[in-house]
Specification:
By secondary structure, chain A is of the alpha/beta class. Chain A has 12 helices and 9 strands. Helices cover 39% and strands 15% of the residues of chain A. In chain A, helix 1 packs across helix 12 (284-302). The chains are: A alpha/beta, B alpha/beta. Bound molecules: zinc ion (ZN) (2 copies). One zinc ion binds at residues 152, 179, 232 of chain B.
Chain lengths: 310, 424
Amino acid sequence: MNWPHKDIVAIADLSREEIYTILDMSTSFKEISKRDIKKVPTLRGKTVVLLFYEASTRTRLSFELAAKRLSADTTALSASGSSFQKGETIMDAAFNVMAMAPDCIVIRYPYAGLPRKLARELPCSIINAGDGTHEHPTQALLDMYSMREHFGTLEGLQVAIVGDIAHSRVARSNVYGLQKVGAHVTVVAPKTLLPPGVRTWGVDVSCDFDPVIQEADVIMMLRVQRERIDEQCFPDEREYAYFYGLNKRRVDMMKPGAVIMHPGPMNRGVEITHDAADGNRSIILNQVENGVAVRMTLLYLSLGGNVNGD
Amino acid sequence: MVIKGGRIIDPANNRDDFADITVRNGRIQEILPPGAALPSGEEVIDATGHWVLPGLIDMHAHLREPGYEYKEDITSGSLAAAAGGITTVVCMANTEPVNDNAAVTQYIIRKASSIGLVRVLPVGAITKGLKGKELSEMGLMKQAGIVAVSDDGRPVESAAVMLRALEYADTFSLPVILHCEDRALSAKGVMNEGALSSRLGLAGIPAIAEETMVSRDVLIAQYAGVPVHITHISTRGSLEIIRGAKQQGIRVTCDTTPHHLVLTEDSVGTYDTNYKMNPPLRHEDDRHALVEGIRMNLVDCIATDHAPHAGDEKALDFDLAPFGIIGFQTLLPLLMKIHLEHDIDFSQLLACVTKNPAKILGLDGGALGQGSMADITIFDPGPTWTLTEEMILSKSKNSPFLGWTFNGRVVRTMVEGRTVFVSD
Ligand SMILES: [Zn+2]
Ligand SMILES: [Zn+2]
């Protein structure tokens, strides 16, 4: 069976079966990372360009390792997205990169929509590593992989996503993905951090964290940024941490077996305390480890790999 | 305790009849028909010839503590409220420091409970320092005991901040009480703007300073899907906007003050600063509209906006004196006056200071049913009396009603079954 997608732009584009294909294949790719020699020749001769217009050490490193473990050549280009406000446009830059004939461009960009546009305009594969507040599909896939790895299934799983839902591409991608695979999602935030129209998302919405915590199998905490204070989304970090932070008191309320996730980077002491982030319920480091395997799968599939792996 | 022989008027239970009330553990145990056997050995309060009312809730007052104790403090304010038959005082946040954090809220609540007279329920500021920029810690203040948030004293200018504030308050199910005033339009105004202000040489506050903000806030409330309460509306225009909003199903409620129901800008002609308040006294047409608004249930509540100011502050020129008048001890007498002069059911007026504010603020109170909190005001409708400065228990005496003659007076006020005021 051939993989039908040239690009990975949004979870919204993937079917339930395709998501499961990615998760299944990632288990074999994860095995490679456990070997003594963590490298296979699968993508030898392919070129992957990492275009990061927004700071992200973690995601860039994850993609870079994923490409290298598959023997692809990688070039990373980091710049500030604001350099496109005048003069050269982002499309000029993209066509310049394209002239170097890469097989895949991994793009992170501070504004929504560019990966979709590149996927349409360029012949190479485009993998969206996060565009504005739109989507972050590879994060959602590694999150779903981590949940399935831990619980054995995603069907019927109760997932609470807590924090700045309004401005989070991670929340959007996870909501779309988790719904497709049959998990049940509750988003938790003050009303000021809920996106308009959230009632149409088909998720449960709560402003009260405590009752949700007692029901959830997975508590996914989102990073909350200080600039939201200036945008009058909440008064200060003290009040935010009190009502929406994951602390010892709330960890003690969690169901037996329930786990804590965070896409990183964490604001320790704001949305998550040390007890929660580093305690035995946290699978935050598993998320990081699984990120490489899932991205190997996505590079492999996008660059023409066969679904059966041969 | 037994309250015997009185006429019970309780809008919350649609009651207006003669009955006896037994009180136990701070709550109403039973309401018995006249002549029914009463428990023996209880203290009996003879209410024959008196009206027995749910304790009044004043949902808009300034107690001035902390920070302005020379104008009023929680003790003097509580005494004045109790004497006025008010058992619950909802106090605004424009103290010094502003009630924008849980520490100030706790201070007010502890102080009030140590005084042990009326129930004092603080309102938190919408924004820190009432500056209209950053949201205050509404969640933490709610845990400390605020019952609402408000921008009274310094209205939120930015519509964006207002939208966020409504959403954030609703996150914690906190009612929002709005003082609607575009301060760029009211500017240096000190009285209602119009022919009279020009003639008197005083800068005016136009009706639209209030009405444009009422419109704005109703629209923001509708968009946010959050209820709002607009306080001290003073113009026919505001009432019309609220009427339209209510007809559309927008969750908006409002109050007006006793003084806007009985006084007009004509009183300002003497330059007496006891007629200087914000919003200002308006035209007779506005006053009439507000009275009719009560009759038609468009105005939900009546609140005093009790705003004490020291004598030397009010002794300044009309242009310079601070806005505001006291109102606790004249609330019920003025309701009586409106009842008598405008033939509005007394129980309808009473609902505006009992059942309706209790509902809007989500309070346990404002009713005289079995099991209700025994917050009870006993009112003697008979006597006529004249208000003098000596009768005023507030530290400040800034009332335009000094020298007025009223019908009926409060004879006893009880909070959770404890008598906190008895007339002599
Ligand atoms: Zn006001
Ligand atoms: Zn006021």
